[in-house]
Amino acid sequence: MTKAMDLRDNRHELVAVNVAGQVAPARIHAEVLLVDEGGRSMLLPGTGGVNLGVHTGDPVANWIADHLMPGASIEDANGEPAVAGPLHLLSCVGNGVRDGKGRRIGVVSGKRGGLAPGGWAPQLVGVEIPDTVAQTLCPHDRIVVETVGRGLRLAEWPDVELINLSPGMLDALPMQVRNGTLSCPVRAVVPATMAGAGLGQDSWIGDLEIAGDECSDGRLDGLCFGDLVAFEAIDGRVSRFYRPGVLSIGVVSHGPSHVPGHGIGVTILLSAPVEFLSGTVSQEGSVGAILRQWAEDGTAPHTRHAGGEDD
């Protein structure tokens, strides 16, 4: 069996770019006023800011929040929050993140963005950070993402699209080649009927949300930030839309929401016809612990060549 880190790719051709951004402020959307079964209003935190003590690997259901992202949420420094700028469009899961003084503070863990009542939601990038860093960050602090991953492709698998995926994260995915198919362990397989907010958008922007609480393959109530999830019959190669015979696999990037049509957010990483890509429910289907370890160590990988030395 061939493992993912042994697959040949074109990372030696990629351009790594330092892109400036800032820590996004915590935002409250008054138009998204949630009401529970008893008529009580729930105006909950979760959009933007630095969420103390929330990490990849933690269960998404542990918190009273809405669209919660672990660690720090960042955004483009000189743009409109609702517009996906260079930082959002070039960032990939696994990219290293520094503060304005050059200190390594964490690693990109996912994205959030899409339609919301009254307009566009902020286009955010999630950053897994250690608790010691979280205590020092403030909204609007300058940060830099060491972006690399746009244009990444597998040499022997041209039909498998790689999206929002750094070379280092590609190596870390628990994938194997089995019976002529690229197989990736996931924590849950979600039917296309449960694909909610995020459909119809560019796969490099934000996420696709799971609009429901139950699926036949895997348990959604046990999902953690950083878990891998597969969407059946969702094509993420150009946009995100329903197409039978295609599978998309992504990483859980934000927590649930009570807003109808919204839910746990998944940043798409892989998409291909099912004859080339499969997702099998397994406890190995997570990269949450890996992302947290990279953030703690300050050692997010850069552009190591498959089978070769570091650049």
- Oligomer, anyone? single chain
What is the rounded distance between the termini? Answer: 27 Å
CATH architecture annotation name of the largest domain? 3-layer Sandwich
Number of strands: 22
The number of domains is 2
What's the gist of this structure?
The protein has 311 residues and is mainly β.
Description:
There is one protein chain. This protein is mainly beta and 311 residues long. It folds into two domains: 2-13 and 153-287, tm1086 (SG structure) domain (tm1086 (SG structure) fold, 3-layer Sandwich); 17-147, Thrombin, subunit H (Beta Barrel), CATH 2.40.10. 8% of the residues lie in helices and 34% in strands. The chain contains four helices and 22 strands. It has helices spanning 86-90, 131-134, 167-172, 288-297, and strands at residues 2-3, 17-23, 34-35, 41-42, 50-51, 71-76, 96-99, 104-112, 115-116, 119-120, 124-128, 142-147, 161-162, 176-178, 181-186, 188-190, 208-210, 217-218, 228-235, 241-254, 264-273, 277-281. The strands form five sheets. Strands 13, 16, 17, 18, 19, 20 and 21 form a seven-stranded mixed sheet that branches. A six-stranded antiparallel barrel has the order 2-6-11-8-7-12. Strands 1-14-15-22 form a four-stranded mixed sheet, with no helix packed on it. β9 and β10 form a beta hairpin. The model is unreliable at 303-311 (pLDDT under 50).
Q: Which features characterize this protein?
A:
tm1086 (SG structure) fold; 4 helices; mainly beta; Thrombin, subunit H; seven-stranded mixed β-sheet
Describe the secondary-structure layout.
Elements: E1 2-3, E2 17-23, E3 34-35, E4 41-42, E5 50-51, E6 71-76, H1 86-90, E7 96-99, E8 104-112, E9 115-116, E10 119-120, E11 124-128, H2 131-134, E12 142-147, E13 161-162, H3 167-172, E14 176-178, E15 181-186, E16 188-190, E17 208-210, E18 217-218, E19 228-235, E20 241-254, E21 264-273, E22 277-281, H4 288-297
Parallel strand pairs: 15-22, 16-19
Antiparallel strand pairs: 1-14, 2-6, 2-12, 3-4, 5-6, 6-11, 7-8, 7-12, 8-11, 9-10, 13-21, 14-15, 16-18, 17-21, 19-20, 20-21
